[in-house]
Each structure stands twice: as structure tokens, then as C-alpha cells.
Write a structure and sequence with these properties.
about 230 residues; alpha/beta; Rossmann fold
């Protein structure tokens, strides 16, 4: 097709209800979100950040990343109700291990109940406390390197978590950072939002690190307009 045959651009953003409809379509056709995952997602309502868990299609995407990377050890910054943690635990399999870091004991209690219901509690270790301190303890303990790290905690500390991820991984590992678009605010260098600056600083850290090869993807859907960074450690 040449330019004369190309359809004219619509020059509009789809309404949010259309984003939701598309997410529902793909979730109903491509995914297998069973009752355990559905209840884990719903239980996020009783955590300190209701509706902050990843969407079902995003959980499935993270699961696929684990399988593509052949990852057996996953580190997660930010647990909440453990929805994404269950996706990770299922993906690593019976011999795999997931360590998830959560600052709020009440959130961790909700998550651990969900892990038991999902039958994956034996392959998940929940560490309660500030994520930076918990990660530092993992480094001090000289734990086995992680194959995949998912950073989805307080955004101003993204650079701290990236530094920890680099200390806790090896060449060939994958690092994923969530919520990096923030309704487009990431492009505003004058933003007063510390979460935006946390994202921008971590991007700068990635660019400056020759060990990392990365890209970013924008997403729209039931979680609004956002996106993630995927980095590969050379």
C-alpha cells in the first residue's frame, strides 16, 4: 500500500471505556485468569493501595517474560496483595523461587493468604520492611543471583532499587520497572511530582550504564495510560 492508499489518521485518543473493552477482550480470549487470581486481584481493595496491582494481561506478560528468560529466581519490589507475585510463582515452577519485598505488614498478610490459596506459598519468600533495607540485607547475605527483577514500589526510590537489582543479578538477567509513563508526565522535566523525577533519574541511570540494554513501552487499558521499562543485563 502506498501513501495514497493509506487510511487517514484518526487524530484522537480512544475513550477510557474503549481501553477497558480492549483489555477485557484480550483477557477473555488469551488469558487464563482463574478464580484464585481473580480473588487475589480483588483483595487488593483492602491493601494500602487499592487497585494498584497490574492488570490481568500485564500479569500474563510478566509470566511470559519469566518463561522466555527461563528464569527460576525472581525478585519483586512491592507486593501489595500478591497478585503479580502469584503470576511469577506459577511461571518459575515448582523448583523456582520468588522473593517479594513489602513494607506494610497488613499488605503482606493479605498476600500470604493469597499465596496459600494459590498453592504456591512454598516457593515464595515475603520480606517485610523498607525495600531498600531488605534488598541490602539480601546483598549482605550473598544470596544467589536473581534471573528477573520486577520494580513496582515507591517510585522516588527507583534509582535505589535499580542499583540493588544490579547487585543482585548477573549478566543475562532481566529488570522490569513499572509505572514509568505516568499519564505522560514523564516528559515534564519541571514536574513537581517526586514520582516523575524517580522515573527520570532511573532512566538516566540506565542510559549511563553500559551493562544495560533497555527499551520502554507505553500501555493503555484498565490501568489508564502508563508503561514500563524492560532492561537486559549484558
Amino acid at each position: 500500500m502506498d501513501d495514497s492508499e493509506s487510511p487517514a489518521p484518526t487524530n484522537r485518543y480512544p475513550a477510557s471505556d474503549e481501553w477497558h473493552a480492549v483489555d477485557r477482550y484480550f483477557a477473555s480470549t488469551l488469558l487464563e485468569e482463574d478464580g484464585v487470581l481473580t480473588e487475589a486481584r480483588r483483595s487488593g481493595a483492602v491493601t494500602t493501595m487499592p487497585n494498584a496491582e497490574v492488570a490481568a494481561n500485564q500479569g500474563a506478560f510478566l509470566s511470559l517474560l519469566v518463561k522466555i528468560a527461563d528464569a527460576e529466581r525472581v525478585l519483586e519490589f512491592g507486593t501489595l496483595a500478591g497478585y503479580s507475585t502469584i503470576w511469577f510463582a506459577r511461571a518459575v515452577g515448582e523448583n523456582g523461587h520468588v522473593v517479594t519485598l513489602e513494607i506494610e505488614p497488613d499488605n503482606a498478610a493479605v498476600a500470604e493468604s493469597n499465596f496459600r490459596t494459590a498453592g504456591v506459598a512454598d516457593r515464595i519468600e515475603t520480606i517485610i520492611g523498607p525495600a531498600a533495607e531488605s534488598a541490602a540485607q539480601l546483598m549482605s547475605d550473598c544470596v544467589e543471583p536473581f534471573d528477573l527483577v520486577f520494580i513496582d514500589a515507591d517510585k522516588p526510590n527507583n534509582p535505589v532499587y535499580l542499583a540493588a537489582a544490579l547487585d543482585l543479578t548477573r549478566p543475562g538477567s532481566v529488570i522490569v520497572i513499572d509505572n514509568v509513563v505516568r499519564d505522560g508526565a514523564v516528559v515534564d522535566s519541571d514536574s513537581a511530582d517526586p514520582r516523575v523525577h524517580g522515573v527520570r533519574r532511573v532512566v538516566e541511570e540506565i542510559v549511563a550504564n553500559p551493562e544495560l540494554e533497555a527499551t520502554a513501552l507505553q500501555t493503555v487499558g484498565e490501568k489508564g495510560w502508563d508503561g514500563l521499562i524492560i532492561a537486559f543485563r549484558r
